[in-house]
Design brief:
Strands 7-6-5-4-3-2-1-8 form an 8-stranded parallel sheet. Helix 1 packs parallel to helix 2 (47-54), helix 5 (106-119) crosses helix 7 and helix 7 (139-150) packs parallel to helix 8. The chain has a single domain (5-248), classed as Aldolase class I (TIM Barrel, Alpha-Beta Barrel). The chain is α/β, with parallel strands linked by helices. It contains 11 helices and 8 strands. Helix content is 44%, strand content 14%.
């Protein structure tokens, strides 16, 4: 049985004081939730603050990105080791905004995934198609390329230490959301791709999140799909009540 994982990606929102307040409010609202793993991914500047707020709770800390080197002359970048210093367990890799706005390609993403796994952090590996790619019938081609190229040379020893997030780019921040049938179809396809790489037992154990305008009013229906194991939540994670409602998805 896969434990659902709900991760709040705050993106470039919340200064330190705002992050402290939000993390505290979320912690109070999800304190009694069982059988769901909750992850908060604040901006780098708020990692230390959020780590202190959630200390001793069941909430895990995640980062939104990292570099593929442990150290070096990479101005403005953040090493996986630095994230460990803050107490991070997870790090988001290959979010569509990184692909779209910062030119991250499959080769770079593969390097990042290898570095993250070597560091001991757990990656949340994002894949997904644009609206144009879906309209042209290229959805499965895109997913196949992103999964196989991103995971090239990576072997899975523990399925609990790898998370995939399917995020249809056309549904991120747009208010649009994939129907449960669309989301399930893509999640099943990704799981079949993982089975081809790592074997069916490992693929069935890996958690695959859905990301794309997840809100309290659609979380329950999405989470009812057999291959959806949680959500990567953007906008709704910036309000404690909304995120808690997504976490509960009842």
């Amino acid at each position: 049985m896969r434990t659902p994982i709900m991760a709040g990606n705050w993106k470039m929102h919340k200064n330190v004081q705002e992050a402290k307040t939000l993390a505290s409010d979320i912690g109070q609202k999800v304190a009694k939730v069982e059988n769901v793993e909750v992850v908060l991914c604040p901006p780098f500047t708020a990692l230390a603050t959020v780590a202190e707020v959630i200390k001793g709770s069941a909430i895990s800390l995640g980062a939104q990105n990292c570099h593929y080197e442990a150290q070096g002359a990479f101005t403005g970048e953040v090493s996986p080791n630095f994230l460990l210093d803050f107490g991070c367990k997870y790090v988001i890799i290959a979010h569509s905004e990184r692909r779209q706005y910062f030119g991250e390609d499959d080769a770079l993403i593969n390097r990042k995934l290898k570095a993250v796994r070597a560091s001991g952090l757990v990656p949340i590996f994002c894949v997904g198609e644009t609206l144009d790619q879906r309209d042209k019938g290229l959805m499965f081609d895109v997913l196949r390329r992103q999964v196989t190229a991103g995971l090239e040379g990576i072997q899975l020893d523990d399925p609990a230490r790898f998370v995939v997030a399917y995020e249809p780019v056309w549904a991120i921040g747009t208010g649009k959301v994939a129907t449960p049938a669309q989301a399930q179809e893509s999640h099943r396809y990704i799981r079949d791709l993982l089975a081809g790489l790592w074997g069916s037992d490992a693929a069935e154990a890996v958690r695959i999140q859905y990301g794309g305008s997840v809100k309290p009013d659609n979380a329950r229906e999405l989470m009812a799909c057999p291959d959806i194991d949680g959500a990567l939540v953007g906008g709704a994670s910036l309000e404690a009540g909304a995120f808690a409602a997504v976490v509960r998805h009842q």
